Amino acid sequence: xxxxxxxxxxxxAISIVGLPWSRSCFVIGKFALWPFGYEAINRRDLSGRxxxxxxxxxxLGNVIWFLVAGWWLAIGHLTSALACFVxxxxxxxxxxxxxxxxxxxxxxGMTIVPVKGxx
Length: 119
Known about the structure:
The protein is built from five helices and two strands; from the N terminus they run ααβαααβ. The protein has 119 residues and is mostly helical. It has a two-stranded antiparallel ribbon with strand order 1-2.
């Protein structure tokens, strides 16, 4: 799935308008490769203030993202989760894929931070 995120990042980098999504795709791709010890949270919850990504422009960006790439990345994560749930060893990875599927639907206004107590 990390390769899927990086492909979405390359495709969105083709246009100047897609560059903010492109950078995020590469960050999320790295998170998809090793999601343990990190979590995705809303930047408003982290900083306590509204910024460009957590306000109305972020909502518009998330709608555009969902229509262009978010739905197929979410489906990819859900499919990967189902494949992981086949074995007991894969269950933790499947749970992370479900979290990433929710993150893939609306990533704008979110940030990836270490889980408290792990770093």
